[in-house]
Amino acid sequence: MAVAGLLEKVRNGLAKTRSAMVARITTAISGDALDEEAADEIEEILIQADVGVDAAVEIVDRLRERLRRAESGAEQIFVSLRKELCQIAGGGVPFDPGAELTGKPHVVLVVGVNGVGKTTTIGKLARLYRDSGRSVLLAACDTFRAAAVPQLEIWAERAGANIVRAQQGADPAAVAFDAVSAALSRDTDVVLVDTAGRLHTKVNLMEELKKVRRSLGKQCQGAPHETLLVLDATTGQNALSQARQFHLATEVTGLVLTKLDGTAKGGIAFALRRELGIPIKLIGVGEGEDDLQPFDGETFVEALLER
Ligand SMILES: Nc1nc2c(ncn2[C@@H]2O[C@H](COP(=O)(O)OP(=O)(O)OP(=O)(O)O)[C@@H](O)[C@H]2O)c(=O)[nH]1
Ligand SMILES: [Mg+2]
Q: Which of 299, 282, 294, 297 is nearest to 233 (CA)?
């Protein structure tokens, strides 16, 4: 997608967070200077957008510092805030479905708590890879929920991807093994592994995930090459503890932040970037097929603070 179209998608997706922030910040700095009152108000606005208390305090401290040195004024305050937020969110390498893949097949394990958008993300991801000319196989390792397989089948059909599935109640690690076998025999480029939602506090379910992981690596060295943890942006700061627990169990290599379109608390992206050493790779900004976008910190901040 062209850069303009991409920004538009992200901009629409962040509309709720933006409208909760920009107007209030504009009012807070209507005196044209960043006085104590305005600084406190901006801190409060950032906290309410789920940027996190520590990050909000740090951002406003640095904002004060910046503005002590330069001339203030509403425009300047926005420019400085943009810079501070970019400092936190920027600098990563955005996900590129056309980039060279590690491993053949390149295996992507998708994990997360219940209902965060794992299956939807896989469907959208399949589409992104297919649009880049890659062959894709979906592994239906959510054998727990009865409706999981038909849901994945619909996405597979839409994207033109193959699917490997089993009976409900089957061992997810066995399905994972079969999927990699099938991908190897069909010379498939990418395997996307859907897993059942699980609470990060349930030890036995986290063990099951480790087993799926080992199973993926049995015939394909280095698999999974990517482990994406899906986080629902509407859950707020709890996303941080989910990320920490899943990372302990499965070595998460990237985050997907979904449902940004449904929340005014999109600031969680900054908390995640600041607190964890794990990059945000993709963001979900709607339920449609093309509503999964590569995360780019600068674009994100631009869309968030546009006036
Ligand atoms: N608005 C919005 N809805 C989303 C987004 N991503 C997923 N959803 C919706 O969230 C709901 C749950 O999505 P699923 O993909 O089934 O979630 P899951 O993590 O696979 O759920 P379980 O397998 O039950 O754990 C669906 O209604 C999706 O359409 C998004 O970025 N924006
Ligand atoms: Mg699912």
A: 282
